[in-house]
């Protein structure tokens, strides 16, 4: 049976927090509307992956599934109003941030809108693109951040970003909250925004990796060099309708077809809600510097990268949880592998599926090798859009579940300047909330390993329609204990590792009782 979603229509953005509790009056800000001018460049079609997101939004409206964000701690003394001024210049410089979307008789189209009078004050629950939240007694920043991350965008002819400066005590440094819809950006785009702000503060002249100078903090920057159009850049990042795409299609059909036939692509966690909310809650586990160093040393001993080793451990935990030994795990790949794309904002990532079959009699070292081999084989075929791959495989979809795989592993490496000497810099580090946040989620489980130089921080996100907090803590804790249990040789059998972990958990429970 086939069906087509209804076209997306304009809709008010819900302003009630996900937990249902009203925001305190101290969070009120002046509402600010954007101009009505919807002019700009000529409309052009959505990429296959954008179209998949658009279709998802039509089927499941008013959810934060594809809302992404990051919160950063600014250095003491950085002025909030000047940050907003520079952010407006960032929007002028990057066409992707000015993308807007509309339905047409030919289907959804996107176009680059002109800058049209963005207001500089806004508040939780309105659609303004820029805002400053003044410091007041009783501000609960963690709750406000979670509220904004769970607030969906109105997709029709509206800006799909929100930049908010949360004012705090001068000695603490303000917070900058950057929120994008995946239609216009990815986490690398957030990095580009942070980089442009930082380098403008450092006084780099035009042409030095960014068009901004220190003068941009108070006045317009010099005109940047002419860049390829957004449509040209995005077309260069993929290769649909080419011989390479045909080869990629053959590869994926050959590699994943048998696993799909064996049921590896079906949702493992059933039943699923008829109206999924696509809201996840975080569980964070920071590995000690000693354990982080040990993981790196083990990866070197196994001749794999820490990325591969930690992904293999994630696959193993998921296999134990679901009882599956034929698995498809997904990870993300940045498509900015050409010099002319490195500074391009937009949705320029692709989902890379990896099919792995293993048995309990396999060693962990051998599992790492299997994952590495799957990754190396898949890497040359990473540019075929995931949405195209899903269509070509003709999958039977589970309503509300991601196709092909419902688990996602990502790796995030932090800049060496974050968390270290920040004299003269605009940013100190990322802001880690005191409590676990709720945010949009597209998969059942997402694990992001954050490489913070001397430590790895494992940021788990679980779909709260499918997981209870106690179960999520159990999964996150078992993953960390697995890393702690690995021996130097890596020769321990996977079945034995599982039994060792179970005995340790039972002993801990008995001790607690």
UniProtKB/TrEMBL annotation:
One Pfam family here: Condensation
GO molecular function terms listed in the Swiss-Prot or TrEMBL record: 2,3-dihydroxybenzoate-serine ligase activity; phosphopantetheine binding
GO BP field: amino acid activation for nonribosomal peptide biosynthetic process; enterobactin biosynthetic process
Q: Which InterPro entries match?
A: CAT-like_dom_sf (IPR023213), Condensation_dom (IPR001242)
* Origin superkingdom: Bacteria
Residue numbers spanned by region Disordered: 1-41, 212-232
Q: Which GO terms describe its cellular component?
A: cytosol; enterobactin synthetase complex
Per UniProt, residues of the Condensation domain are 45-491
The cross-references to PANTHER family, in alphabetical order and at most eight, read:
FATTY ACID SYNTHASE, NONRIBOSOMAL PEPTIDE SYNTHETASE
The protein's name is: Condensation domain-containing protein
């Amino acid at each position: 049976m086939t069906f087509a979603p209804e076209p997306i229509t304009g809709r008010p953005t819900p302003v009630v927090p996900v937990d249902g509790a009203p925001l305190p009056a101290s969070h009120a800000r002046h509402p600010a509307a954007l101009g009505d001018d919807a002019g700009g460049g000529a409309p052009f079609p959505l990429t296959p992956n954008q179209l998949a997101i658009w279709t998802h939004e039509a089927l499941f409206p008013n959810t934060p599934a594809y809302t992404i964000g990051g919160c950063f701690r600014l250095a003491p003394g950085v002025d909030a109003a000047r940050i907003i001024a520079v952010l407006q210049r960032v929007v002028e410089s990057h066409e992707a941030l000015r993308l807007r979307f509309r339905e047409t008789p030919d289907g959804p189209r996107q176009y680059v809108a002109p800058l049209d009078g963005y207001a500089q004050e806004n508040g939780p629950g309105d659609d303004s693109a820029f805002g400053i939240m003044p410091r007041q007694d009783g501000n609960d920043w963690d709750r406000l951040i979670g509220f904004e991350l769970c607030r969906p965008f109105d997709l029709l002819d509206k800006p799909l970003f929100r930049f908010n400066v949360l004012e705090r005590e001068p000695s603490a440094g303000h917070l900058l909250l950057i929120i994008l819809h995946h239609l216009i950006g990815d986490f690398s785009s957030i990095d580009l925004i942070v980089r442009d702000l930082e380098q403008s503060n450092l006084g780099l002249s035009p042409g030095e990796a960014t068009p901004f100078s220190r003068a941009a903090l108070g006045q317009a920057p010099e005109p940047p060099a002419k860049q390829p159009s957004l449509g040209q850049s995005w077309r260069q990042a993929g290769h649909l309708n080419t011989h390479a795409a045909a080869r990629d299609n053959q590869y994926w059909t050959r590699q994943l077809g048998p696993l799909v036939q064996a049921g590896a692509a079906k949702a493992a966690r059933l039943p699923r809600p008829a109206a999924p909310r696509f809201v996840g809650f975080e569980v964070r586990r920071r590995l000690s510097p000693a354990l982080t160093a040990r993981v790196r040393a083990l990866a070197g001993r196994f001749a794999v990268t820490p990325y591969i080793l930690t992904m293999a451990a994630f696959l193993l935990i998921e296999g134990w949880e679901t009882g599956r030994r034929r698995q498809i795990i997904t990870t993300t790949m940045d498509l900015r592998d050409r010099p002319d794309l490195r500074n391009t904002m937009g949705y320029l990532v692709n989902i890379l599926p990896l099919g792995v079959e293993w048995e309990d009699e396999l060693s962990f070292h051998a599992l790492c090798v299997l994952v590495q081999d799957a990754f190396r084989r898949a890497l040359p075929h990473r540019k075929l859009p995931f949405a195209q791959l899903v269509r070509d495989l003709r999958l039977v979809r589970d309503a509300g579940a991601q196709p092909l795989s419902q688990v996602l592993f990502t790796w995030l490496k932090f800049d060496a300047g974050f968390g270290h000497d920040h004299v003269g810099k605009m940013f100190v580090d990322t802001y880690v909330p005191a409590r676990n946040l709720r945010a949009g989620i597209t998969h059942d489980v997402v694990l992001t390993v954050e490489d913070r130089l001397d430590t790895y921080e494992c940021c788990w996100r679980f779909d709260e329609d499918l997981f209870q907090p106690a179960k999520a803590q159990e999964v996150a804790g078992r993953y960390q204990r697995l890393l702690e249990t690995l021996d130097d040789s890596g020769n321990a059998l996977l079945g034995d590792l599982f039994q060792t972990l179970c005995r340790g958990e039972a002993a801990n429970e008995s001790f607690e009782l």
